[in-house]
Amino acid sequence: MATVAELAGVTIKRGNNVLLDRISLIIHEDERWVVVGPNGAGKTTLLQVLSAQMYPSDGVVGLLGEVVGAVDVFELRPRIGLTSLALAERIPPREKVRDVVLSAAYGVIGRWREEYDVYDEARADDLLGSLRVDRLSSRTFGTLSEGERKRVQIARALMTDPEMLLLDEPASGLDIAGREALVDTLSEICLDEDSPATVLVTHHLEEIPEGITHALLLRQGLVVAAGPVETTLTDENLSATFDMPLAVSHRDGRWGARSRR
Ligand SMILES: Nc1ncnc2c1ncn2[C@@H]1O[C@H](COP(=O)(O)OP(=O)(O)OP(=O)(O)O)[C@@H](O)[C@H]1O
């Protein structure tokens, strides 16, 4: 299987803070990763590295066969789909939903005067359909519920047919029904062998969709454990990650965690 990302000894420093500390990681195209760790562990920073938005202070980042730093990142970035709160906040509230998705084809946020071809328009409509928000395509982004916005952002991230899909807390802020429906949709994406390699950051094991194959546990910028999800998401590893005794459960395809105190 082809490698889509390879991090070797990657360190990110800001001032005296070490955000990521000598991270080494290989992601193959058929893998779907979940990244778990406490607030401030470096999860979002890792996604920034994987989306070529951030350069390492030390170490080497290989993405889609290119070395970051030795390649034009503007050619690399369209090959990687990203959803994050920071990106969502940059979407103009008056932007039409269909244009939020369509404008990804040009790597811009906010439609201006681009001419889109029929192929792009059909793809945007298909994605809105598969994310089950096609009925909202002529609404403005600012009028959507949180759950609807998350779906539109995922459709946007998939618009360029990326080779890697990065999802930063896609279910945060959703109610139970919204979360469950989104986890189902994410499961469909993760289980589809035509989907790109996926890395999903979450705070809650309940939000891990079926089809996730690997897990990375981060604490204070360091990898606590990484590997196949079944052998990585253990009581011992999760307890070490959050510095409290935790019990992991895995029933009917769904993960969970609770205190052992
Ligand atoms: N520019 C910066 N300068 C200094 N420290 C920073 C900077 N950016 C981020 N940090 C720190 O780096 C650490 C990792 O941040 P990051 O956003 O990657 O964590 P996270 O695991 O995604 O956290 P959360 O779960 O709270 O979203 C945090 O302690 C944060 O305060």
From TrEMBL:
SUPFAM superfamilies: P-loop containing nucleoside triphosphate hydrolases
Signal peptide extent: none
Gene Ontology MF term list: ATP binding
Keyword Protease: no
Keywords: ATP-binding, Nucleotide-binding
Domain ABC transporter: 5-245
Superkingdom of this protein's organism: Bacteria
Pfam families according to UniProt: ABC_tran (PF00005)
Full protein name: ABC transporter ATP-binding protein
Organism: Tessaracoccus lubricantis
